Amino acid sequence: MPNEVKSLNEECGVFGVFGAQEASQITYLGLHNLQHRGQEGAGIVSSDGKKLYQHRDRGLLSKVFADEADLDKLVGDRAIGHVRYSTTGNNSIANVQPFLFHFYDGEIALAHNGNLVNAVSLRRQLEEAGAVFQSTSDSEILMHLLRQNKHLGLIPALKKSLNQVHGGFAFLLLTKDKLIAALDPNGIRPLCIGRMANGAYVVASESAALDIVEAKFVRDVQPGELIIIDQQGMKIDHFTTNTQLAVCSMEFIYFARPDSIIHGVNVHTARKNMGRLLAQEAPAQADIVIGVPNSSLSAASGYAEEIGLPYEMGLVKNQYVARTFIQPNQALRERGVKLKLSAVRGVVKGKRVVVVDDSIVRGTTSKQIVKMLKQAGASEVHVRIASPAFRFPCFYGIDISTRSELIAARYSVDEIKELIGADSLSYLSVASLIKAIDLPDKGDAPNGGLTVAYFNGKYPTKLDDYEAGYLASLKAQTAREEGKK
Amino acid sequence: MPNEVKSLNEECGVFGVFGAQEASQITYLGLHNLQHRGQEGAGIVSSDGKKLYQHRDRGLLSKVFADEADLDKLVGDRAIGHVRYSTTGNNSIANVQPFLFHFYDGEIALAHNGNLVNAVSLRRQLEEAGAVFQSTSDSEILMHLLRQNKHLGLIPALKKSLNQVHGGFAFLLLTKDKLIAALDPNGIRPLCIGRMANGAYVVASESAALDIVEAKFVRDVQPGELIIIDQQGMKIDHFTTNTQLAVCSMEFIYFARPDSIIHGVNVHTARKNMGRLLAQEAPAQADIVIGVPNSSLSAASGYAEEIGLPYEMGLVKNQYVARTFIQPNQALRERGVKLKLSAVRGVVKGKRVVVVDDSIVRGTTSKQIVKMLKQAGASEVHVRIASPAFRFPCFYGIDISTRSELIAARYSVDEIKELIGADSLSYLSVASLIKAIDLPDKGDAPNGGLTVAYFNGKYPTKLDDYEAGYLASLKAQTAREEGKK
Amino acid sequence: MPNEVKSLNEECGVFGVFGAQEASQITYLGLHNLQHRGQEGAGIVSSDGKKLYQHRDRGLLSKVFADEADLDKLVGDRAIGHVRYSTTGNNSIANVQPFLFHFYDGEIALAHNGNLVNAVSLRRQLEEAGAVFQSTSDSEILMHLLRQNKHLGLIPALKKSLNQVHGGFAFLLLTKDKLIAALDPNGIRPLCIGRMANGAYVVASESAALDIVEAKFVRDVQPGELIIIDQQGMKIDHFTTNTQLAVCSMEFIYFARPDSIIHGVNVHTARKNMGRLLAQEAPAQADIVIGVPNSSLSAASGYAEEIGLPYEMGLVKNQYVARTFIQPNQALRERGVKLKLSAVRGVVKGKRVVVVDDSIVRGTTSKQIVKMLKQAGASEVHVRIASPAFRFPCFYGIDISTRSELIAARYSVDEIKELIGADSLSYLSVASLIKAIDLPDKGDAPNGGLTVAYFNGKYPTKLDDYEAGYLASLKAQTAREEGKK
Amino acid sequence: MPNEVKSLNEECGVFGVFGAQEASQITYLGLHNLQHRGQEGAGIVSSDGKKLYQHRDRGLLSKVFADEADLDKLVGDRAIGHVRYSTTGNNSIANVQPFLFHFYDGEIALAHNGNLVNAVSLRRQLEEAGAVFQSTSDSEILMHLLRQNKHLGLIPALKKSLNQVHGGFAFLLLTKDKLIAALDPNGIRPLCIGRMANGAYVVASESAALDIVEAKFVRDVQPGELIIIDQQGMKIDHFTTNTQLAVCSMEFIYFARPDSIIHGVNVHTARKNMGRLLAQEAPAQADIVIGVPNSSLSAASGYAEEIGLPYEMGLVKNQYVARTFIQPNQALRERGVKLKLSAVRGVVKGKRVVVVDDSIVRGTTSKQIVKMLKQAGASEVHVRIASPAFRFPCFYGIDISTRSELIAARYSVDEIKELIGADSLSYLSVASLIKAIDLPDKGDAPNGGLTVAYFNGKYPTKLDDYEAGYLASLKAQTAREEGKK
Known about the structure:
The structure is a homotetramer. By secondary structure, the first copy, chain A, is of the alpha+beta class. Helices cover about 30% and strands about 25% of the residues of chain A. Chain A has two domains: about 230 residues, Glutamine Phosphoribosylpyrophosphate, subunit 1, domain 1 (4-Layer Sandwich), CATH 3.60.20.10; about 220 residues, 3-Layer(aba) Sandwich (Rossmann fold), CATH 3.40.50.2020. In chain A, strand 17, helix 10 and strand 18 form a beta-alpha-beta unit. In chain A, helix 5 crosses helix 6 and helix 9 runs antiparallel to helix 16.
């Protein structure tokens, strides 16, 4: 979740609605409940059946639509919206979605959550043939493919194009008379459908966005599906049948809202189960259990219940954002300024504390938390991570693809324990992670229908452009492990 | 705490530091951890021993100091700061503190948390004698009294003036060479002293503001004390010895941060105790216990532990603020738009739920929460309030002084239960509240050294200007109760 | 006029209206045409006969009222407004007018253009008696005096107070039922009265503000007058009869809009006359005459007509404001960056140019202009100043009171000519200045009813607090002149 | 010029520099002096020889670069910039230039002033072949053509592409190692080259932009030329030799700055000549001559000199912008609120006034001016227009292409005189316009090397996509004229 002390970042959330008056206002509400998926840009494209209308800008949703008039001009009963996370340097306005394309034969808007693994090679092929891209985003590629195939007609062209892109993706498209949703063949990114009391259809990255607009959950979009919504209603089609479920496990561990339900599993409940199983796998001799707010509170309460220790509020999160330029004198800075988290002295003083966190990325925050708790008087600090160790990059839309900084890729658990200053450290096993989530519709899909490649390096798709980089990282890892022996 | 779904509002937080380089930056940090005490205005006055420098404006701290230069120009090693809550209509820039007064014989800055009960009559007397006020705040009165008494010298004049004002107050004053703190004779508002590693003294409304600047807690300011800090160090003086401890119980129930320690009691721990005692007084036949985030989570976990039911996350708070102008079509609005809170369907569905809240003011939020939980599938909703029923106004700095809307002042517990649609409703008793807080330095003060007038109408001070209003409200209440018989 | 390349600054403009619906909107329009008198702050106070409503902030009028709602909330049929210029360091929000004072027995708003010469001593007396000032502005003093005298009743108290303040001043006051205007005994600052078609009265610093609201000019406020406007109409009273007209000549030379009429004299016409008389006093052998836009264009055209040379556009003013932080590399900066003015090469190339300017303050701009014209190919540059040389400070509201940088106070005309690099330099004589303006109602007032102290050191009032400073400056000047001999 | 009371709008200005440190700061300065050519968007792309860096946004230059950091990040010694005017509805950020395109084989930035007459058909052809446009601007077309031709190599591909586009255009392109400028075969839009003292080359829409960066004028870019600037210096090439000079006469009449020199003619001088010739063609029995500020002042002074009447300042322009939402009550609005212009009563009262304006578009402003002058007391108002009557649309970059509102296309001179309430009205003849400008390098080009199609319907290029629209307008006009007979 956003404003967390972690540096894992989801790359976007999408929302669409068809058939509801004030569709742009409904989309605003939906995006409000998806804001945790991206805080660096937001936009909405609406249509009244005649034209498409757009507003987008950098920043939080509330800033982008700070002026009421900007929302009012997005008229019509259909709309799609997007919230965007972006890595530094690419936060250009040109990359803020939904993209809106004007063609002589019509307008199309596009919103995308995910990452294509063959974007670089596809883009090069397209550019060789004369294509001109304005964004640096891989999302624009689909539109170029679609136009290359346009002689086939919209839906066949779209199906063909969706088979040309590889990776994890949830696409929403809006034309003046259709709202279209498509999900990758592994269903890596979440996407679900709801229906409002007035019959309007809603599509959203998470079910929490259905709740805020009082839409009833209808179904999850399934791998390889193409959903077409128009005046005649909703049609469920598909662009491929070569599919296999591999939902991103990080959605359950960290990204999604606790009140969302993904493929039948409530996120909070999954996290609580992770905490329970972690307690079974890695109990600790301690007095109290605390969680790192907010994303780890579910797991912490599960851990506490399972092990039979009191669950306490040992860390408090500051809900206000401080200006980043505030840097008091060196002495103060060195002792560590805690703008986001505070330890509750009255709770942890003199106690052996189990602190449950959902993940460790670079280890710097964990180190600060341990230090903070000890300064507040904790006699022992036992760190328990309610997910397996991150060792491999994500290529499907989470911003850890380029990070050589994954601490677990470079150090053993014992080494990490020393680095962060904990009295003990344990991670959840991959098997327990799968068991904690326990997807009802997993069938016989590997890994219980989840993508757990971040932990074991086994990716559900070909890696295409990333193949070389992945192999290099794998080799380095093996070499490191060999060296240890 | 701020951004809560409640409409109780603290009227300010104060912070001061003397003897630390970049004092204004340290004050910014301190105010950052006091931001929950006031979000409608903020300011800092600093001094380098020669002049006083000021910056203040409406809005959150991060907005007021959005431009780095505004903080940089506040040079010097001493500063005071203020965060302000204000009632609608008075949110003029003229009322944003600290006030800075320029006199021919020196400059004085003033920051105030609290409310004076004789402000109206004092102001009238002063105006009759020719005084000109620029703010509508009662805080300015002290400065006029101080100047009327100025022939006595600063400290004697201040002591005399502090005896002329009645009510609950924590004042900070800054001259070019002194930082002065004063607390009302009942210690109604919290105020504590800390010390940084470099010897600098810090004064703050809550100890959480000491923590963020890594100052060690020294002591609470005691009722009637006058603390004078200058180059020679700290001197503890007093302006009256006619004192009796009566700390505002609402600080423990609702306002203060859970990590703060007030008169030796950790706020989180006190809240957890309130939950425990509430479970003893008012157990419920249920499956799970949930709290209203964030201020009621401590009490909810105490309730759950005591009663032996699972403590679950049944409500999630949205950490992003939505634009208030978003008002979708009537149908949607009527069904209630939940921008701030969401129920976790996966948790509450089919369950008998105890929802613990810290207080009920007007009842509208409680009604929404019950409805939201039932819509999410809860089979029963039992509301448990971890404080006694609010029946009387606060005259010491909490914004419920003018509220005829206190639901508990007009309805019985049974009536309220019906109004909010709960299956059962119970409040904590005053006795249990006092027991839960259990102030170590209460001595033989009435009500365990707490102000509990909001619940029982027994105020620790004379009410002066409010006497008539109070009597009227009391009479109305009695009449109502009589009528019931 | 503002955004000019000069560093002379008027300290404010005032506007008031009584009896017109949407009075605050009318006041906005009036202030729009007075914006040249102050760009650093603006505000309006309105009344509906029951309460007073205020909005004010730092910055240009269009920024202060950027949000339409801020104007809409200023309801009622009466209002006063203010635009403010301020010297660096005092640009605090506390100093932005109109001030609004809330007393137990009523509210009063105050707007002021001018400067009091006994402000320091009055303020000291008041503070000795316990008065508390919030602004550093001298304008607040009148309110303190008024309240000291309040037992007399509003109008008598005001008359007494106006006799206690000395200097140049135009005051507007607004209570819930009265709009009051007062002008100093010498009428130094301009102030005039108009009437709208619907009967509403308007009071403004300049007649150009009457024009924009389509009010007909009624009369100038005369020295020592007190104008009281209420539901019964307008009453012309006075607070003193010991008066003598001494209108600030700088209003005609530089500050006022060319379309304004002050005491019967159109400002553009006066300036054109200054140019004509300057041509008679100081002709030049040249090919063309140009003016420094915008304030010197009238004088330049008069000079050209009188001398019979073509009047050309040799300098162009950029109407857009550049960011001040733009500082290209040193080489470029040294050659002088011309963000505000550009020479017209096609006009001046190979020509002997007379450039007419209205004044020289520090000389730096004149030096740049001469250099710019020569770089553009002018063969000779003859500078003609359409006013006498500034040698003495203004104590009545123009921001040159503290300037030791007045070039003409330190150097002779010949020396200045050398310093600015001109081929010749002449100023207008004081006698010609008086003749050019030629006030119709001057009677037998000295200096034709004008204040020309900036040129000859003869002030129309006692100088009170400034006496010592003035004498010192006079002595230094005499010493310098002696030294020359 | 911008902020004028006219509704003619130039569609952009361009600036480029190669070989100067802090190239983006220099570009900012250049754009500052081109701001009158477009106020609705601005941007700069720079390069350090390795990468291209971009910042652009809607609004004035000073707003777009309000944050110093936005300019600082545009590092390198080469840059191009753009200021944009846009018609309502298309003011999307996607249309703000320079465009920056990222290709796998390099980056290219593009800035454009002008309009292509075959944009619609070219775009359709490109889209048929799969091209995806993000902007609605015709400028993007050149990039698509360039990429279609890229197998030829950059310069040959560019030459071929420039022959495919028709109309009036000045293009600047920046790659990491080249700055390229191209001008249409008729040289309709102005573009000139300068050189800084350090050897850096500068290209700009107007010579006024060379002046502010202290670059010496080198030459005008000639029709059909392709200028290539790189580390080796400047190379003058061409993409066609089928050229004929037809400079837009509106640049001289209205758009360009008076200090600019276009094809050897100073704009102010040309305007003054227009005024002189207008006086010969259409003298008036009057007392004074005034101009409409600012763009008509040159012509007015020429008229006055030629006819021997005093040139006066009878209209004053307000240099501050008022909020557009200010709409006082109906009565006031009907009498006409003059936020931008004011008549100088002291000048025009009782006088027969000649008011010189540069053009009439819709006639509404002229009507207001006449009314304003009469209300201020003018006894007669004779309107003289220093250009021929606008009867035909511009297809080369001036925003009158879609205007059926051209008053002179629908009414005779006599009718217009009545509509605007003038006592007499005359326009300049086309022959005198040509004579007034008198281009030195016109050779035997028709119309003295100028485009005067707006007056006589004879366009210098084929009209392609606009042919049908033009013919229709011509037919309507003829019909109207026939009907009059």
